[in-house]
């Protein structure tokens, strides 16, 4: 029997690399061109690639990503590049007759400042978080394009998964580009290695965040390929529970063996007070994440320490 041929965009990013590492990925033939081989901002190049390689399915995991500082600094890039990539790959796949596509959205697509878990029906039901609005808008538009394509012709099943925040192996640890957990790992390790007695936390540390180990999203994606027909059209992928910023610092400190203290800079931006996804659809589909926070942080710290050698 021929293997399902999957075109994976973003194969060099954290999500893509974790998917390519997954023990089950060998069941499929995966094409994972890097941006040097396939520029997703070039519509004609994507059309040519699809004509040449004829994938059975596309997984769109590429994107310009970054933490709160990067999003505040470069809103134009985060809007335009993600909009171009999403629109181009989705529409080129439709033009090429690719019947199945999995688009990766982001929990940034949801309205800001909701204390309750964010259900899939809440997309475009309120104001977006201003600090990453450009990125969020691009993700919303791409998800809606997928939905419209399927609405016009049900022969094309273009589905969107909305992961919560991610961390893990192949993350970016450079403070200028990193998300919360890799930034904390970098900061705490630096404090430990230089003998600092205090690590600074932005804000009061009580904001809550849901971070899932990227290897767990890879597992959800492998299952999504295997059981595509039963996959909901729009589905959150997350833990269904969250932790405070302070707790993330404490877990990283424990894993790295840092015994100093923490101080809070109340002048710094902290983003939303809470952002937790509703996992009812995901649980009904029969999947849940396997890594606890300490276990995921342990694997991520091990990867980070190895990368320093």
Give a topology summary:
Blueprint lengths: L4 E5 L4 H8 L7 E3 L11 H11 L3 E4 L7 H6 L1 H21 L4 E5 L28 H20 L4 E7 L1 E3 L12 H15 L3 E5 L5 E2 L1 E3 H13 L7 E4 L5 E2 H12 L4 E5 L8 E2 L4 H6 L7 H16 L1
Parallel strand pairs: 1-2, 1-3, 3-4, 4-5, 5-10, 6-9, 7-12, 8-13
Antiparallel strand pairs: 8-11
Helix pairs in contact: 1-7, 2-4, 4-5, 6-8, 6-10, 8-10
Quick structural overview:
The protein is built from ten helices and 13 strands. With 309 residues, the protein is α/β, with parallel strands linked by helices.
Largest sheet: 6 strands, parallel
Structural class: alpha/beta
Question: Would you tell me the overall average pLDDT?
Answer: 95
Which consecutive residue ranges, at least 5 long each, have pLDDT under 50? none
How helical, in percent, are the residues?
40-55%
Record field, number of beta strands: 13
The value of Rg in angstroms is 19 Å
Classify the beta-strand content into a percent band: 15-25%
So what's the overall shape?
Answer: globular
Distance between the termini: 43 Å
Strand line-up in the sheet with most strands: 2-1-3-4-5-10
The helix/strand series, from N terminus to C terminus, equals EHEHEHHEHEEHEEEHEEHEEHH
- Helix tally? 10
């Amino acid at each position: 029997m021929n293997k399902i041929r999957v075109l994976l965009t973003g194969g060099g990013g954290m999500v893509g690399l974790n998917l390519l590492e997954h023990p089950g990925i060998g069941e499929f033939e995966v094409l994972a061109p890097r941006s040097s081989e396939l520029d997703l901002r070039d519509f004609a190049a994507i059309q040519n690639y699809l004509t040449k390689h004829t994938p059975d399915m596309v997984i769109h995991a590429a994107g310009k990503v970054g933490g709160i500082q990067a999003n505040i600094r470069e809103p134009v890039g985060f809007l335009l590049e993600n909009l171009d990539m999403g629109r181009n790959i989705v529409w080129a796949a439709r033009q090429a007759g690719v019947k199945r596509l999995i688009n990766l959205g982001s929990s940034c697509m949801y309205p800001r400042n909701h204390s309750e878990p964010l259900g899939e029906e809440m997309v475009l039901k309120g104001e977006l978080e201003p600090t990453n609005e450009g990125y969020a808008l691009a993700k919303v538009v791409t998800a809606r394009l997928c939905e419209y394509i399927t609405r016009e012709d049900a022969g094309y099943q273009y589905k969107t998964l909305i992961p919560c925040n991610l961390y893990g192996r192949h993350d970016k640890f450079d403070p200028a580009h990193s998300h919360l957990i890799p930034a904390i790992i970098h900061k705490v390790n630096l404090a430990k290695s230089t003998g600092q007695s205090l690590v600074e936390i932005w804000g009061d540390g009580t904001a809550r965040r849901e971070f899932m180990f990227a290897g767990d999203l890879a597992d959800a994606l492998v299952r999504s390929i295997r059981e595509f027909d039963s996959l909901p059209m729009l589905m959150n992928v997350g833990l269904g529970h969250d932790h405070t910023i302070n707790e993330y610092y404490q877990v990283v400190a424990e894993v790295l063996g840092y015994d100093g203290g923490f101080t809070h800079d109340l002048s710094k931006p902290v983003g939303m007070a809470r952002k937790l996804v509703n996992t009812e659809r995901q649980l009904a589909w029969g999947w849940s994440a396997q890594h606890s926070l300490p276990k995921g942080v342990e694997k991520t710290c091990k990867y980070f320490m190895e990368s320093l050698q």
